[in-house]
Write the structure tokens for this entry.
Amino acid sequence: MAEDNTLARPYAQALFELASADSTMAEWAAALDAASLVTQQEQLLKLVDNPAITSDTLLGLLQDVLGGIPSAAILADKSSKGANFLKLLIENDRLDVLPEIATRFEALKDAAENTIDVTISSATGINDSQASEITQALTTRLGRAVNVTTTIDEDLIGGAVIRAGDFVIDGSVRSQLTKLSGVLSK
């Protein structure tokens, strides 16, 4: 949502500056990912909307849950900057924006590290040799280090779709058939 993006931007930027100054970029990224998953759980959402639950109670509960996730340690420490961050989100009724904050933080981190996450969706599995070839080509084309994730999407029929942020290469058979159908129907 555009509104969530607008709300998340200052939080993500502030965390990015904090993490840059403290050299804790990876820790914050992992903690935000874990926390965004936790805050999307239906049970927690019911507590957030419950007026009988105080901000301090919600903060304590959230930190207890995050304390069981090793990658979220920076948020679970009750006397840390992470605790202050969670408290700020809860008090400003912005806990639901945490997934977008995590996404924006990751984008800032990737830009600072000159990396980009790439997803390759193919109709069949991609072997290591093919993945390596694609990774090298994308690294050259995008001028960044590339982190590749592969998925299988049988709906593509054949070929692959490569996504790197807003950059998309659609070499799927499904896409080609759709284009052909458009041309033939004119």
Summary: The chain has a mean pLDDT of 89.
